[in-house]
Amino acid sequence: MLPNIVLIGFMGCGKSSVGRRISSLTGHRFLDSDELVSGADNRSIPEIFAARGEAGFRELESSVLASLVGVVGIVLATGGGAILREQNRGALRSLGVIAWLDAEPDILFERATRSNKRPLLQTADPRKTFDDILDARRTSYETLADFRFDSSHCDHDEAAKRILDQAMRRTRAEKNTR
Ligand code: S3P
């Protein structure tokens, strides 16, 4: 059986769009941790940051991720900072195959700043903030992921097909080594 697929990666990498397409290809239910956090607090992510600060947002994010442990048949798109806490990393590992959706920094930055929905980038120098956060997180994405997929030069449909293919190959390879 196809395991859960968890998408991690930086803001703007396309986790939600690609996740929805993997969900259509597989029949797995699509979940987006930001949407779950938003639903749990009845307000948007920027409103949550404004009311509770980043720390309050992270608490909600952690409880949402913990509540998913044991759920099967899902494709989960995580928020870019979901990898920051060990408790979250443990929850994501237990869920299924973890794909790191990556792209070139210029591309990520352009995609991440198309909307102003990302509170962490509302600074005097968004590009510097973006680069600093990306540098600080890169190793965590790399360490947690089962594999990395560079989506710089392909569309969401292509990314979804190729990530699914890699996830299935990994699952088969794991079975054969048991
Ligand atoms: C965040 C990324 C956002 C959202 C929140 C914090 C981060 O999700 O969870 O604004 O810390 O990188 P996306 O990665 O979907 O933009």
How would you briefly describe this protein structure?
By secondary structure, the chain is α/β, with parallel strands linked by helices.
Structure description:
With 178 residues, this protein is of the alpha/beta class. It has one domain (5-171): P-loop containing nucleotide triphosphate hydrolases (Rossmann fold, 3-Layer(aba) Sandwich). Helices cover 58% and strands 13% of the residues. It contains 7 helices and 5 strands. Helix 1 crosses helix 7 (156-177) and helix 3 (45-68) packs across helix 4 (86-95). The longest helix has 24 residues, at 45-68. It binds shikimate-3-phosphate. Shikimate-3-phosphate binds next to loops. Shikimate-3-phosphate (S3P) binds at residues 11, 15, 34, 45, 79-81, 118-120.
Observed structural traits:
globular; alpha/beta; 13% strand; 178 residues; Rossmann fold; binds shikimate-3-phosphate; 5-stranded parallel sheet
Helix and strand layout, with pairings?
Blueprint: E1 4-8, H1 15-26, E2 29-32, H2 33-41, H3 45-68, E3 74-77, H4 86-95, E4 96-102, H5 105-112, H6 126-144, E5 147-150, H7 156-177
Helix pairs in contact: 1-7, 2-3, 3-4
Shikimate-3-phosphate binds at residues 11, 15, 34, 45, 79-81, 118-120.
